[in-house]
Amino acid sequence: MANESGDVVLVTGGSGFIGQHIIRLLFENKSELNIREIRSVDLKTYKNTIDDEQRYLRTFVGDLCEPESVVDAFKGADSVFHCAGMMSLQFPPNYGKLNRNNIEGTQSVVDLCVKHNVKHLVYTSCGSVCFVPFKGTHTAVIINQTETKAPTPVYKDQDHMEFDRQFILRGYSSSKLRAEQIVLAAHGRALSNGNGTLVTTAIRPPLTYGEGDNFFVTDMLKYLSSHSFVYPRIAGVGGKQQLCYAGNVAWGHICAYKSLKSAPRAIGGLPVFITDETSIADTSRFLQKIGASSEKFKVRQSSWYIPRAIFQFFAMLLELLIIVLEPVKKITMKYSLRALCAYASSMIFFNRLRAAIHIDYVPLIEEQTAIKKSVQWYIKWYEQNIPQRNGGGAKRKNH
């Protein structure tokens, strides 16, 4: 029997990667969290793609930038997890779409929360809001830094292009940081009924993997499957980057939600890094670990590497050419080559002390289990989406 006195919780972007993991944990902990109703709002009807469980929830379809289309989702809600947004490293960046989806959409969510007296708002930000060039280089260096120490620019109504130039991942990072600042600035804003204020926080996960991933490992598998599963080293010897399992990122959101309810002063108006015990290594090593647990794709590094400065130079020339041709030919690249090189050569791992102390966060799922669950899902995805040739990648050309 439903608990009529419990909370009504809404997840924006409920059909997305992190949104689905949050919904799964909300269902698994529904009684403990005293939740009466779980809702999802997205551009499409909620569909579970991360496992085989049947979950029944109220689902709304609408555009956050058109508040009248989603107002029913917010009416009567007590708490909101705002996961909806646009993930894109396209070059040239589509600033119009990023601004609309990440910034305007977030402002709309905040306004709807205030108008409909939502008490708690947890925003899904990202670790890349801290990815700024280290001492004028094209790499980021974030070594065991907390939220107060990590280099994070502040947007003060300056030209958005000028602001964007402060990041190594152009377009996306600046839009997410501006959205994050909107959410955190709304902390303490009076609700429309005069009964209390909105309490907010922002979760900053690093690059995330796991079931439902449609950007990171899946895109790498698309590329690698047509290149004999050889990972090209385009950033010299490379750096090291922190990764996190989606289930633990979602658990960080749940812990933040509980903290906002029980001790709002602890993280209210503040960002929180969420990490787990996934080994810190360069991206190619992580993909090799994923591949080692599967017979479908065995990934290996190229025997050669391109010095970072040389790759950056030629990538810059290519991007300049695209800038010249784009207005006429409408040429774009799904990824900025300079951004990929900059990320691959960066040193990135965060200190989650704030999460441990103030929201009582401990990773829910250990690395071995996270890898196993992820690999099972990636194999299924691979079989459904990648044309199978010569045993689906089990055989490779020699290099």
UniProtKB/TrEMBL annotation:
Q: Kindly give the InterPro entries that the UniProt entry links to this protein.
A: 3Beta_OHSteriod_DH/Estase, NAD(P)-bd_dom_sf, NAD(P)_dehydrat-like
Record has Cell membrane as a keyword? no
Q: Which residues form a coiled coil?
A: none
Q: Which Pfam families does its entry note?
A: 3Beta_HSD (PF01073)
What GO molecular function annotations does the UniProt record carry, in alphabetical order? oxidoreductase activity, acting on the CH-OH group of donors, NAD or NADP as acceptor
Organism in which the protein naturally occurs = Stomoxys calcitrans
Q: What is this protein called?
A: 3-beta hydroxysteroid dehydrogenase/isomerase domain-containing protein
RNA-binding is among the record's keywords: no
Enumerate the PANTHER family for this protein: GH25466P (PTHR10366:SF853), NAD DEPENDENT EPIMERASE/DEHYDRATASE (PTHR10366)
The family annotation for this protein states:
Belongs to the 3-beta-HSD family.
Q: Which UniProt keywords apply?
A: Oxidoreductase
